[in-house]
């Protein structure tokens, strides 16, 4: 990690994001002196060198948002949101900035994956589907669509398989974090 990268990520971080349990906001972090950012850069580099993510940065504050039109007495009527410590989020953004070129170059994510990708929205995916249907109709071809919504998909990820894939594509300092 370089000083300029750390400073840039901090400066570009949205002010309106809620802080984690550390109560550090982007507004406050943007006023850090140069020396503090230099120390932070050294800490981030040590984390990568040692492949050790600080335990204290793994804790989060969890707040519950009610889902619309759901009974308030059911636990399933709420969406949990984890608020992570500010510097953990900055490190995540720095790591993403480093590994994203490799992810794109090696085509780790398929072109038709639109979730959690920059410049890929559900609107783009809807256009892609409409274009495929329109093409089929123009050519008088059959067009079959299957829509799959996997509930709690993140919770059901096959972690051993995911780690195996990450190990194939990522540098060990990122994989081991």
TrEMBL record:
Domain Reverse transcriptase spans what residues?
A: 46-177
* One Pfam entry name: RVT_1
Keyword terms, alphabetized:
Nucleotidyltransferase, RNA-directed DNA polymerase, Transferase
GO MF terms on file? RNA-directed DNA polymerase activity
Matching SUPFAM superfamilies: DNA/RNA polymerases
Q: Does the keyword Transferase apply?
A: yes
| Source organism, top-level taxon | Eukaryota
Q: Indicate what this protein is called per its UniProt record.
A: Putative RNA-directed DNA polymerase
| Provenance organism | Schizaphis graminum (Green bug aphid)
């Amino acid at each position: 990690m370089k000083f300029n990268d750390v400073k840039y990520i901090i400066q570009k971080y949205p002010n309106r994001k809620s802080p984690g349990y550390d109560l550090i906001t982007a507004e406050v972090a943007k006023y850090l002196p140069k020396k503090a950012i230099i120390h932070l850069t050294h800490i981030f580099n040590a984390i990568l060198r040692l492949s050790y993510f600080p335990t204290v940065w793994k804790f989060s504050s969890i707040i519950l948002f009610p889902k619309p039109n759901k009974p308030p007495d059911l636990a399933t009527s709420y969406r949990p949101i984890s608020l992570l410590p500010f510097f953990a989020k900055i490190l995540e953004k720095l790591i993403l900035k480093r590994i994203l070129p490799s992810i794109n170059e090696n085509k780790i994510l398929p072109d038709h994956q639109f979730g959690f990708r920059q410049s890929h929205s559900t609107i783009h995916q809807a256009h892609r589907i409409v274009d495929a249907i329109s093409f089929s109709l123009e050519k008088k071809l059959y067009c079959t669509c299957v829509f799959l919504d996997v509930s709690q998909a993140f919770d059901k990820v096959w972690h051993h398989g995911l780690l195996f894939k990450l190990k194939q594509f990522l540098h060990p300092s990122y994989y081991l974090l």
